Structures are given as C-alpha cells and as structure tokens.
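User: I'll paste a sequence; please echo it back and then give the predicted structure.

Assistant: Echoing your sequence first, then the prediction.
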Amino acid sequence: MIDAHRLVGARHIDSPNCDARPSGELSLIVVHSISLPPGEFGGDAIEALFTNRLEPRAHPFFATIAHLRVSAHLLIRRDGSITQFVPFDRRAWHAGRSRWQGRRALNDFSLGIELEGDERPFTAAQYSALARTIATLECHYEGIDRSRLVGHEQIAPLRKRDPGPSFDWCYLHLLLSRGCGNSPLVAAGSVVSS
C-alpha cells in the first residue's frame, strides 16, 4: 500500500538528494545494487551516503564517494526489509548519465530501487520484497508496469554493472507472473520492517 507517495510498512529516512519531477511522469523502474563498504552488508553506510553523512575517514573507499550527492527511492536489505529515502512523486538522484529507449534524464521519470548486494546471489527475501513492491507500484501508478523494469547496467552499460550477473531476472519475472508480488506489501510481516 502507498500513502502520500510513501510505501506503507517501510522504514522512512528522508534524503536531501532529490527534487521535484519536471512532469510528474512515472514510467520506469531501475534496479540497482550497492554494498558499503564494498563486499560488506549491514551497517548504516548506505543510509549515511544517501543522507550526506558518510564519514570519509571511516573506510578508505568512503573517501572516494563521500562527496557524491545520490539517493534512491528504496533500499531493500538482505533480510528483505525496506527503507524509503525519497517519496515516489519526487525525483531521486540514482540513474546518473544514462539512456533508455532513446530518452535521457531518466531520473525525471523513473523510480530507483537499490538492493543491498554485490556479485553474490541476492536473497529470497529480497526477491520477495522486490516483487511485492513492484506489484504495489503497478497498482498505484498508472505508468508503472513490469515491462518497464531495467537494471542500472542496461541504462548505463559503459559505466555501471549493477545489479549484475548474480541478479536473476527470470526468477523475479516468475514471481511476478505467478502473482507472488500481488499480496499487499504490508502483509509481508517479517519481510518489511516498520
């Protein structure tokens, strides 16, 4: 369920790295993956990055990215819990320089969903939460449907590789086609945190 462009049942942390959508169009979902520090899961580094609080001295890699002003609409952790950083009616800064079906400035009309991960396989809880989220978004926003679901690597192939080869698109589409994403997100219980 979505209320005031926020996912009910998700944890909400506001990111300043967003602005108004120029047209209000929502017609694309971009799936990303992230782990901070690279190869590590858990902790608050992703939240710190998306809220401009990443401490550059906390890890050598952080010094290379702490200056970035980026965000995503959602983060799905390894356990399937979801954090929302940007309301869906606002433009999150997640796609960067990218192109899809001849269009640029993809942040203008897309939703960015980060999965906590790297080259290792994603978890069943993440696929379940992602399928439920996509189904919820399809029900709420007219322009969103699973035919307009891409990875960051597909819209920026020369500079991005996420969600990467370990992301199982066939499994996600199987879950969606079986209706596994059709049950309300808030009914997921242990899948989402509040």
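Residues 31 and 76 are 10 Å apart (CA to CA). The helical segments are 45-50, 62-65, 124-140, 152-155, 169-177.
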